[in-house]
Here is the input.
Amino acid sequence: MRFLPAILLSLAAIPLLPAQEATITARDLMVKGGNLMFVLLFLSLVAVMLMVYYCLSLRRSVLAPAKFLHEAEDAAEAGDWELLEELARKDGSLAAKAVLAASQERPNGLEEARKAMEEEGARQTAILWGRLQYLMDVASIAPMVGLLGTVWGMMVSFLALDTDLAMANKVSNLTSGVSQAMFTTFGGLVIAIFSLAAYALFRGRLNRLTAQVEVDCKAVLRRFKKA
Here is the structure.
């Protein structure tokens, strides 16, 4: 019994010992995660390409170029509707399409022109939101693929317990299935988290840009009133 205090002190000191940290590489994720990791890899590439596309397209210089707005205001103030339509057709931006719709309805009155501008602006904004939704789709699909990998890994593990007679094979197959389940779940959650974070950022940017484009288009419409 005199050795009992020493044994207890030894057991209490175990958590204080430095543990060896396990490192997981990208190769480990792909190899141990199974074939579903290639699906997750594809989804991650799609998410990255969408983010690059949004960075390039969701800009004020693309949706409402300053040069076009200045030329459109000058043309509207001068009453040159043909020039205004020509400028809008050549530019093709969101602001240009809204201004083009308004200029085409200008002979029917300012109220009809305003309605046409708002309707076209809403339609073009809906198209942009539809494109942004693709990133949300990736964020929704990725964890589902990870969950599928989890279920598949558990099925493999329990099936191995029923079929393998050797205890070593049982342990090996069990750990392999569990690791596959964890790796696919981890991969799916990582893709989903980053995709959702990027979606939130681009959603805020799109809201600000569409509000600014609406202000810019109304500035051109005010020139209609002066003409």
Observations:
- The chain has nine helices and no strands.
- The two ends are 105 Å apart (CA to CA).
- The longest helix spans residues 167-226.
- Residues 76 and 224 are 6 Å apart (CA to CA).
